[in-house]
Amino acid sequence: MRLQHCNKAQIYTVQEEFLCSADVVGDVDEQVAILRFDGSRKDILETEVLVKFLDAAHGVLPCICRLSEYEEALEQTTEASEASSAETKPEESKSANTEEKKAITSTVKCTVVAEHEVIQRRQDVKVSVQLATSASFLDEDHQLQAAEVTILDISAGGMFCLSTAKWSEGQVFASKIFDKTIPVDLEVIRVQDAHSYSSDYPADDSRIGYGCRFINLGQAAESALRKFVYQQQLQKRRRK
Questions:
Q1: Which of 41, 59, 61, 174 is the most exposed place for a label (fewest CB within 10 A)?
Q2: Average pLDDT for consecutive 10-residue bins of the chain (240 residues)?
Q3: Under a CB-based contact definition with an 8 Å cutoff, are residues 116 and 83 in contact?
């Protein structure tokens, strides 16, 4: 396995309990990667873990990995402090005007033991969100129409949204999601009422739920979409 566009990873126990996130240092080559963390992670890392690599070209790649060669480094930084008194000698003043701060960074060698099935498209990680955006589509008379949509969950393969628009399976529409200037195309593959999706929505909610899949995605757009979904997942974890 060789990954050249991977800079983030999430680490889980083999039972898929989340442990922490990490930066991937350099390429993943010859089944080996170096993972870097802010702060100490020695107390929570296990010898054998599930690592989900985010690769811009391939999507989310979950692997069973063995961790070894854990190291911690103490980085020193200097910060200006309050000015010293006039009585302080010049050489003493220079020292007094700076304050050292220390930060721990840690690294670990990650060796891939076994690759799980690559998770792509509809099998990619799905994140619950609340994103309001708009959609443009052609009606039955081939007239261009616009509608407001609320995205409730999203993955690299598709999304579920609510809208007052009346669509049927097979309806194609464009929506600006991860890039506010570039719309992406979607196709409706499932129609259901909002209440059946979640009891949080009343039975008389006028909006209709649509399960959609992304279509006509170029490689650059697909990579940007995966990155957007991954960022949404990280933000959700930070809020917990």
A1: 174
A2: 75 87 81 90 87 75 90 74 49 54 88 68 70 93 94 89 95 86 88 88 90 84 79 76
A3: no
For residue 210, list its beta bridge partners: 161, 191
Q: What are the chain's domains?
A: 6-119 (2.40.10), 123-239 (2.40.10.220)
The Cα–Cα gap between 201 and 190 comes to 18
Going by C-alpha positions, the residue among 159, 173, 134, 135 that lies closest to residue 225 is 159
How many other CB atoms are found less than 10 A from the CB of residue 237?
13
Longest pairwise C-alpha distance within the chain: 86
What is the DSSP secondary structure assignment for residue 181, as one 8-state letter?
Answer: T
- Would you call 147 exposed, middle or buried from its count of C-beta atoms within 10 A (0-12, 13-18, 19+)? middle
| pTM (two decimals) | 0.51
Contact 137, 149 (CB under 8 A): no
Residues with Cβ within 8 Å of 200's Cβ and at least 6 positions away in sequence, in order, are none
Give how far Cα 143 sits from Cα of 37, 179, 204, Å.
Answer: 53, 25, 29
